[in-house]
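FYI - complex with pyridoxal-5'-phosphate, inputs then prediction.
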Amino acid sequence: RTVYVNGDYLPETEAKVSVFDRGFLMADGVYEVTSVLGGKLIDFQGHCVRLARSLSELDMTNPMTDAEWLAMHRELVAQNGIQDGMIYLQVTRGNPGDRDFAFPGPDVTPTVVAFTQAKPGLAENPQAAIGIRVISIPDIRWGRRDIKTVQLLYPSMGKMMAKKAGVDDAWFVEEGHVTEGTSNNAYIVKGNRIITRPLSSDILHGITRAAVLRFAAEAQMVVEERLFTVEEAKQADEAFISSASAFVMPVVELDGAQIGTGKPGKLVPRLREIYLEEMRKAAI
Ligand code: PLP
């Protein structure tokens, strides 16, 4: 692969980042994952807006304009011949040349790294016809989950707990209510109503979430942004997750209890279709 590091496009074996980089030592950095379908970027503007916000919340300077981010992403897509897949982008606070808890001064510039992940047939994922199974686990992450930081240790542990339990993923639960999935937003469906947690610092403000809720309202589905419990989710007609790489994915089991018929229902597959169709049309 050709990867991007601080202005250069290099073979992945030649790309280097300092051992003193604060991303490496302190998880002091943020990231974005953008999907590519048919060689085009999905909802790229949304990712640029969230990236700018994550950086600003952490007092980091945004090293590039949106036009420059776009050009760099397109260059990576072209150089790696990506049709379907993802672009991972990471911006860390950079390399102060030593380890220190205090943020370095403005002379230290952010480190920017980006690479492609080819996923042929990403939108035709056969899992969507089956759905995924999840377990619930306590949400013990920090209090600023709205910032997309590279602190992904607990979400990784959650994924491993799911694997050990023989299922696909985990939903985090805090004070009796579902927050989100390890790397996705969580929803339940009752009749024509889509229920999902409102935006706050408790969850990541999913770019896919925003689009999905917009399309759902346009398709005359009712969107209810409120808290929900694991018990309520088990009694739901359908459930699903959303993320830039999974799009809209049915959830058919929670903590061993079947949701609805235990198979993807009617509303969620329809929402997935609408999402993919609309986003392909708007891809850049
Ligand atoms: N919530 C968490 C914790 C995530 O890590 C992600 C994506 O990685 C999401 C939600 C979904 O966000 P998006 O739709 O922007 O990919």
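The pocket of pyridoxal-5'-phosphate is lined by residues 33, 180, 183-185, 204, 206-209, 242-244 (CB under 6 Å). Helices lie at 22-26, 44-57, 66-79, 127-130, 153-164, 207-218, 230-234, 267-282.
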